[in-house]
Specification:
Blueprint: E1 3-9, H1 15-26, E2 31-33, E3 42-49, E4 64-72, H2 96-103, E5 108-112, E6 121-122, E7 125-126, H3 127-132, E8 142-155, E9 158-165, H4 171-182, E10 186-196, E11 199-200, H5 207-215, E12 235-237, H6 240-247, E13 252-253, E14 262-267, E15 271-280, E16 283-289
Parallel strand pairs: 3-10, 12-14
Antiparallel strand pairs: 1-3, 2-3, 4-9, 4-10, 5-8, 6-7, 8-9, 10-11, 13-16, 14-15, 15-16
Helix pairs in contact: 1-5
């Protein structure tokens, strides 16, 4: 069984918790996610299962969109609301105009130091493991891309924001660094991911909704149709003979005129059987051959 679910991750769960929950619901071990969310965060967490886990490589650099709240007045050791304050809270005497002006310097390509409690590795060890042991950390700044960072409101020392960022950007670090820039300290109080690549919050389902649908045999109601995956990559439909060749990993001629380097190959309307790479003309090599079982269908 292959498929993709857009989970609306609840606050307090890790991304791995959600994956384990999906494993239990669908009764399958081959389950993964497309982009970690911190326990504090909620929102879009695409979860793939079956052979579609092999598509994760195509989403590793996906752009992400967020909404959230930054609390000013003190920083924390985790850069978010789950950490311990690094100093007593201080009064905040900034205006929304000050915030919006400071936010401008966080747009574009910037150098960002990852938060100490993160999965970034130091000599092969995740930073969060060292941070838990109170070990001194030497995380190096990295280049990140922030296409949008807008302060939408400011009240009671809390600023609401909207952001659109490239993969690898930490909104916790943005919140912390903005507090430093304003001289009053700050940390990420709440975060909701509203989009990952083509997956939007409007299409997300809670784990409870997924479980109810699965138990009712209405899998199609909660799974993303395979034709909607990777919309920028052209699709072609294989005949019976061509599909058999693709499943055995052999090059095939495909009726594609897009001149794209890669195409999605379907058998019928709903079974994604391969990602194929163009060799020359209409001759393609199946770069990734997906399992031959049919796509998810509702039972009854």
């Amino acid at each position: 069984m292959n498929g993709l679910l857009i989970i609306d991750k609840p606050r307090g769960l890790t991304s791995h918790d959600v994956v384990n929950n999906v494993r239990r619901i669908i009764g399958q071990r081959s389950v993964g996610h497309l982009g970690t969310l911190d326990p504090l965060a909620t929102g879009v967490l695409p979860v793939v299962f079956g052979s579609l886990t092999r598509l994760a490589q195509f989403y590793s650099a996906s752009e992400k969109s967020y909404e959230g709240t930054i609390r000013f007045g003190f920083a924390t050791d985790t850069n978010d609301a789950e950490g311990h304050p690094l100093a007593p809270a201080q009064s905040v005497s900034v205006s929304i105009e000050d915030l919006r002006l400071a936010a401008q310097s966080f747009r574009g390509t910037i150098a960002q130091t990852p938060p100490p409690f993160s999965a970034k590795k130091i000599q092969g060890v995740p930073a969060y493991k060292l941070a838990r042991k109170k070990r001194a950390l030497a995380l190096e700044p990295v280049q990140v891309e922030i296409s949008e960072f807008e302060i939408t409101s400011f009240e009671n020392e809390r600023a609401a924001f909207r952001a659109r960022v490239a993969s690898g950007t930490y909104m916790r670090s943005v919140a912390h660094d903005l507090g430093v820039a304003l001289g009053c300290g700050g940390h990420l109080e709440s975060l909701r991911r509203t989009r990952v690549a083509e997956f939007k919050i409007e299409d997300a389902q809670t784990p409870e909704q997924v479980e109810v649908a699965w138990q009712a045999g209405k899998c199609d109601d909660v799974c993303v149709h395979p034709r909607k995956l990777m919309p920028d990559m052209p699709s072609v439909t294989a005949t019976d003979d061509v599909a058999a060749h693709i499943r055995s990993g052999r090059p095939v001629n495909l009726p594609d005129f897009s001149r794209a380097k890669q195409v999605k190959v379907f058998y019928g309307q709903a079974e994604l059987i391969a990602i194929a790479t163009r060799i020359a003309g209409t001759l393609f090599h199946p770069k990734i051959v997906l399992a031959s079982e049919p796509a998810v269908h509702a039972a009854g």
